[in-house]
Amino acid sequence: MSTDGPRTHRTARAMSTHSVEDIKHGSGRLRGTLLQSLADPVTGALAEADQTLIKYHGSYQQDDRDLREERRQQKLEPAHSFMIRTRTPGGVVTPRQWLQLDAIATSYAERGLRITTRQAFQLHGVVKGELKPTMQAINAALIDTLAACGDVNRNVAVAANPHASAAHAQVFAHAAALSEHLLPNTRAYYEIWLDEEKVADSGAEAEPIYGAAYLPRKFKIGFAVPPTNDVDVFAQDLGYIAVLDDAGALLGYNVTVGGGMGATHGDPETYPRLGDVIGFVAPGDVIAIGEAVVTTQRDWGNRAVRKRARLKYTIDDRGLDAFKAEVERRSAVTFAPARAFAFAHNGDRFGWVDGDDGRAHLTLRIVSGRVWDRDGEQALTGLRAIAARLVDTGAEPTPAQFRLTPNQNLVIANVAAGDRADVDALVARYRLDEHATASPLRLNAIACVALPTCGLAMAEAERYLPDFVARFDALLARHGLRDAPIHLRISGCPNGCSRPYLGEVALVGKAPGRYNLMLGADHRGQRLNALYRENIDEAATLAALDPLLADYAAQRHDAERFGDFLVRSGVVATGVVAPRRTLDLELVA
After folding, report:
1. How far out from the chain centre does Cα 273 lie?
2. What is the mean pLDDT of each run of 10 residues along the chain (589 residues)?
3. Choice among 31, 85, 359, 561 that is catalytic
4. Could you tell me the sign of the dihedral formed by the alpha carbons of 299, 300, 305, 311, in that order?
5. Theoretical Cys-Cys bridge with 100: which of 109, 141, 158, 410, CB 3.0 to 4.6 Å?
6. In whole angstroms, what is the distance from residue 159 CA to residue 503 CA?
7. Which of 217, 324, 370, 448 is catalytic?
8. 85 is catalytic
9. Known catalytic residue: 149?
10. Which of 114, 154, 324, 510 is catalytic?
């Protein structure tokens, strides 16, 4: 990295004179000047427009915010590096791929591997000069990063731990096919990172789904398999809720549209929103409906005001009935009335769960999704040993898999009976069995990355989670509630990567050490929480929770969850419950 501080500092931080829409239009199908930026030895940063375009290739330019002031005083540019995110539909990789990603993270990244709330891997701290070899190594593992970020369909989330293995396999296949169908058509990714030759239409490829300017904003899809709503399907732009018959066979999907978590502090024009159920479709209609929803958003979405560009605002501005009719017109599919479904919870089921095919699935707790060896933890080494033990089972009819969960945990899936003892021994040896001893609060807590790498973070999240959980657990114990399964979510800013607005208790960052306290979501992912206290520190947060927990301990009904109690007792009134539009749906509570 250059030490030519003033010059490179200005280059990296120069203000744009072009909008994101201008950059997309003029990018030559996402190429821009990325090749030139990557080759520039003067700075660890990319040209500003290329910082936007590299997102579509699966990477964000970041810097270490802990070092910003020190480097500024030394007249150095920020300590630039890059986050790389994989496109792994449903978060499914083989043991061999896990070992390959482990080696890549060890060679090129900092802070190990990280499991995201969209079932992708993130690698942090990759410097510009090693971006290309890192990307090539990921592709050599038969994984790519194309469209993992940017104004396109992102990684498709899928229920991670099946209660019906055969149906889950079908749902995963539909999700993977939709993910592939919605990939951008540009060859820019392959030319820039994999050195493929340019062809005649390079820079002007047809983009039949995305068009010349791609989508107005990012787009997220999730597939849920009741009774588990681990994907938080109502938080997705487009959701598919699997409907199974009494024998566990897949009949089709209830479709939801218009969910989204992002908001801006103090701006009532932005808000989190739950998706609406608009009807039922057969399995064979999944791709047609998906393309129709995406292209309608492409054409109807707000490109003038970027913060109002998500699908949720399009639906609120245009009307749900009009949107549904347009999707039916474009897809040539008529929605049937939605079928009954019931969600029991939106968390993970820890420990061993037996599948219906003779295989078993072991869910391990990974705090904040961070897989590394640090402070006595041996998650990276331990999971490497498990992957090595299972790597030779891939030739079997149902191979072992590693599945990332939308709650940042890990499922060791499809484990044969003869392998369980060895897996258990490795889990014990490397102390990966936190799920057996941790409190329910710690097991269910989610946090985004936030500081020091996220440029949007206003407060800590991942680094703060363990300390806050310890203090919250102590408060729960004081009221005899340590075993209460409360869902806690912490976000460093209001953009909602940790889906904080679906937490029974959530902290949304406003400034260093200060958060908005949100309360009252349910444990099924079907009700938003509400603001309870604004811009408070930790002491005020715990003080606000203390009397509420006392009342909960004294007045709760049998098996009543904390969020439900807060609503029933009138402490919070969210008034936002999904599905808000049922279309003849009989919702089983």
Report:
1. 16
2. 34 51 97 98 98 98 96 97 98 97 97 96 98 98 98 98 87 98 98 95 95 98 97 98 96 98 96 98 98 98 97 98 98 98 96 88 97 93 98 73 98 94 98 95 97 97 98 98 97 97 98 98 96 97 98 98 96 69 36
3. 85
4. negative
5. 141
6. 19
7. 448
8. yes
9. no
10. 154
